[in-house]
Amino acid sequence: MTYMVNNRIHVTPGYEEEFEARFRARAGEIDRQPGFVAMRVLRPQGNQAPYVVETEWDSQDAFRAWVGSDDFKRAHANPMPKEAFGEGGGIEQFEVVIRADAN
Q1: How do the domains of the chain map onto residue ranges?
Q2: In 3-state terms, the chain is what percent helix, strand and coil (to 5)?
Q3: Are strands 51-57 and 36-42 parallel, antiparallel or unpaired?
Q4: Are 83 and 10 in contact, with CB atoms under 8 Å apart?
């Protein structure tokens, strides 16, 4: 079973570049986690749309292990200021039931 987690984040105008730069310069803690498959940071293309940080896992248990790990704590230890984020957003979790890939 593939497990997807989407974190919808409303970034305050003027903080977009810093937000993206933090992901580009990240330490790579998540990349080494058992069960981690992929991560994508999606930039919104419309007004008021949030960024989406999408992660793909082998299972829900793998995602939960990441959230409970010391690596997760290190990856989130130096957050951006509160004013960098708007209200709304949140975490969405999905089990993939149908998948189509290019041949």
Answers
A1: 1-48+71-103
A2: 30, 30, 45
A3: antiparallel
A4: no
More confident residue, 50 or 1: 50
**Which class in CATH covers the domain with range 1-48+71-103?**
alpha beta
Q: For 1-103, list the strands marked E by DSSP.
A: 3-9, 36-42, 51-57, 90-95
Residue 39, CA atoms < 13 Å, CB-side half-sphere? 15
Give the closest residue to 30 by CA, choosing from 69, 60, 1, 2. Answer: 69
pTM of the model: 0.89
- The pLDDT-based confidence of 27 (bands split at 50, 70, 90) is confident
Residue 40 has, within 13 A of its CA and on its CB side, a CA count of 9
CA atoms within 13 A on the CB side of 22: 14
